[in-house]
Amino acid sequence: MTGSNTSYRIRQGDTLSAIARRNNTTVDALARANNIQNPDRIIAGKTLVIPGARDGFEANVPRPVPRPAGLQTGGAQPRDSFEAGTSQAGMAQGVTPAGTAAVSGTQNGYRNIDLTAFRQGGSNSESAIVVGTSEGNRTPSGGFTASYGGHTDPGNSKHNRGSFSYQGGGASSPSHADEIWNRELGRVTPQYQAAAQRAGLDPNNALLASSFYDLHTQSPRAAQNFLNRELPRLAQDPRGVTPEALVDARVNAFRNDAGELRAAGFDHSETRLRADQTRRETALVRALDARGYRDGGSSTSALPAEVPIPRPRPEHLTSGTPALPAEVPIPRPRPEHLTSGNTQAAESATPTDFNDTAAITPAADRPAVQTNAPWISQYDGSQVVRAGDTACFRAVEAMVKQAGGTVTGPGNRIQVATGDASGGGVTVDRAAAQRGREYIDSQLDAGLPVGVGVNHRSGQNSDNVDGITDHFVMITGRGVDEQGRTYYTFHDPATNHRDRGADTNPNNRFYVNPDTGNLYREGPTTGAVVQRHFEVTMVRPNA
Predict the structure, then answer these.
(1) What SS3 class is residue 325?
(2) 494 close to 113: Cβ distance less than 8 angstroms
């Protein structure tokens, strides 16, 4: 069954794969729908037909009404089954893939965005381009400035690289740094969503979300204050969520609970900090406007087009050290792959760390291994008992059995997730996540696949043993990608099509969350289950 088609105008810097991810489809489907002979070559300004949602589960089918809390089901025992239709995706109202139109609940003239799609695509992601424009490493058109390849942070003398001026370890290239930081933004997104909703603000608003992502990139400490203290104040601001109000909120986020400004990189000067925050917010507005995120509704107040960038004092300078000149050039090596023809004019990069930026490290390398496990659709009645929407676990049992293993009962599970996180995703028992991954590795090394439960939607699944798991898939192998990150391949039974469900689909990969140790697959929060954001909830050992 096919949903209605939509259209999309190609922007500078787009790739077909990034467009496919943002619109819950595939490169092959886009190529077929638009008669594209070479998927690696698309032209900015052309309009693409985006095919409607296909198989798995229809995106426009409403989700069933959740079971009231505390409702008992008689003498039913905990089991791995699901209410009819729970795997069908209800499209979140007012949320659209990045780059498409939807009026935001926060009436400031900016559209809603799908926060997951906004972060997808590495250096081609909207988040990398928009925040990168604020950082001075990108241009609103998606171009690269000379500082993208690497430069010294004037605030703390650390080495920055990539769109986000990443300063942590484990990045093999600027583009790898962008992928690492997009994962970090994904890690803090549920907390941001919950805080915005508590304050009565729309977390999907493009300007608000971009401002939070930008502030977290500059100072996670200030971003935490922004969520805890400034969002409730922002919701009461008579100006609304405007650039000016956001600048005030950002400046105040650098204050401690006693109201003292703590911005060491700016010598604790509010004048210098405000100038920097104004410049950054202005850059965000310029990038969002250039990339089409205005909804044509309420107009936003304009910030100055050109704001002087203050020169921060490095932390190692004492008060007796002469101040640095305001306009000292920042050395910015040109990335080796950029030529003078495709490098845009450099914009000054600003400090992104005030002794509190989190260092995010990628997963450690592990030897590659692949089991010879079959793929089976949960809709295949010839191989799956009671095939259909609720047969994912039984399909996993059948796949593991054909590969030589036997999935044990739920009482023997390794429970990784401890609950549904507010705003989406799950909370994780780190020790259990480590045990689960070690078990998976041991089974793969022995040639056996492993069934795992995953969460892909908010809200409890009251018919499953843990109340958290929404779906089951089977891990089939382990590999290392071109960026040195360990991944785990998996078969997904939630489709009739092998090219989507089997582990040969490059989208069917779990990566390791460096913060929790849990396995996850990046993806949208709506649409067909086989494309959604997955987080492992439990590991089901073999007998």
Answers:
(1) coil
(2) no
Q: What is the DSSP string of 414-438?
A: EE-EEEEPTTSSEEE-HHHHHHHHH
CA distance 317 to 21: 46
Residue type, 250: R
Angle between helices 270-290 and 206-218 (to 10 degrees): 130
The C-alpha atoms of residue 472 and residue 410 are separated, in whole angstroms, by: 13
Q: Side chain identity at 66, as an amino acid letter? A: P
Q: How far apart are alpha carbons 52 and 2 in whole angstroms?
A: 6
**Helical (H) or strand (E) element with 101:** none
3-state secondary structure of 136: coil
User: Rounded to an integer, what distance in angstroms lies between the CA atom of residue 73 and that of residue 518?
Assistant: 31
DSSP state of 236: H
Contact residues for 416 (Cβ-Cβ < 8 A; gap 6+): 428, 429, 432, 433, 436, 518, 536, 537, 538, 539
Q: Which two tokens stand for residue 207?
A: 């300007």
Amino acid at 291: R
Whole-structure pTM value: 0.45
CB-based burial, 490-508: b 16+ in 10 Å, e otherwise? bbbbbbeeeebbbbebeeb
Compute the distance between CA of residue 40 and CA of residue 403 in angstroms, rounded to an integer: 37
Q: How confident is the model at residue 377 (pLDDT cuts 50, 70, 90)?
A: very high
Tracing tokens 């925050």 back to the chain, one arrives at 277
118 in Cβ contact with 21 (< 8 Å): no
d(CA 56, CA 88): 8
Q: Which helix (H) or strand (E) holds 450?
A: strand 450-455
What letters, b where the CB count within 10 A reaches 16 and e where it falls short, cover 101-123? ebebebebbbbbbbbbbbbbbbb
Which helix (H) or strand (E) segment holds residue 189: the answer is helix 174-199
**Phi/psi of residue 500, nearest 5 degrees:** -95, -40
Strand partners, 415: 538
pLDDT in tens, 442-501: 999 999 999 999 999 887 776 788 999 999 999 999 998 776 788 999 999 999 999 999
Distance, CA of 411 to CA of 466 (rounded, Å): 10
3-state DSSP assignment of residue 514: coil
Q: Which residues contact 370 (CB under 8 A, 6 or more apart)?
A: 476, 477, 478, 479, 489
